[in-house]
Recover the amino acids of this structure.
């Protein structure tokens, strides 16, 4: 690839990365301004992911049926079926009125709380068992913060839970946008690494 074509490609990638960063910032701000709406959308995305995962799991398991143990295939099909049922149930609830939709969002928020609780406990345990390694304190801090988030989410009222997913999505998008604008865009500098290479 010539130097001029690398310059062009680098400029295009940098422009796209900057555009993506601005878009993520805007979406993050919108999610924080309208956390309940963002929570509903995030819940719908999770439901679709469950449905796709369940369908792909069924196809994959049926294709591997002759290669794997029957009990293993059976339990894999059970898991895929649970994914399908969970995805279908969430979508049905989201379309069955405000009360049912709120219940789905609150359930997802509670599930996140449980995940944070488990993840925080594991992080604390791992950091405490590796105190000889430099930086273990950051791992401990991360675990304690994650644990605290899990406790906070699990002790929230149902109304407050409706905003949790949207706020988490908003914060994640904001940090992703900042990363794209300040760090990731630098990977697509206008100058190629081998600037001395002839055209």
């Amino acid at each position: 690839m010539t130097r001029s074509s690398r310059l062009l490609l680098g400029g295009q990638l940098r422009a796209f990365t900057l555009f993506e960063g601005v878009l993520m910032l805007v979406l993050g701000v919108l999610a924080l301004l309208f956390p309940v709406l963002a929570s509903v959308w995030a819940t719908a995305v999770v439901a679709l992911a469950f449905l796709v995962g369940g369908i792909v799991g069924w196809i994959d398991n049926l294709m591997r049926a002759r290669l794997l143990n029957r009990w293993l295939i059976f339990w894999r099909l059970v898991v895929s079926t649970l994914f399908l049922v969970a995805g279908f149930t969430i979508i049905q609830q989201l379309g069955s009125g405000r009360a049912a939709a709120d219940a789905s969002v609150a359930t997802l928020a509670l599930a996140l709380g449980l995940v944070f609780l488990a993840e925080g406990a594991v992080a604390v345990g791992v950091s405490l068992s590796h105190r000889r390694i430099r930086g273990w304190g950051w791992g401990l801090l991360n675990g304690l913060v994650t644990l605290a988030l899990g406790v906070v989410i699990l002790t929230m009222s149902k109304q407050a839970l409706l905003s949790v997913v949207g706020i988490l999505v908003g914060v994640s998008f904001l940090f992703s946008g900042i990363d794209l604008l300040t760090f990731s865009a630098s990977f697509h500098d206008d100058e190629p690494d081998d600037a001395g290479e002839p055209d």
In short: Residues 191-199 have pLDDT under 50 and may be disordered. The helical segments are 3-33, 35-63, 70-94, 98-128, 136-154, 158-182.
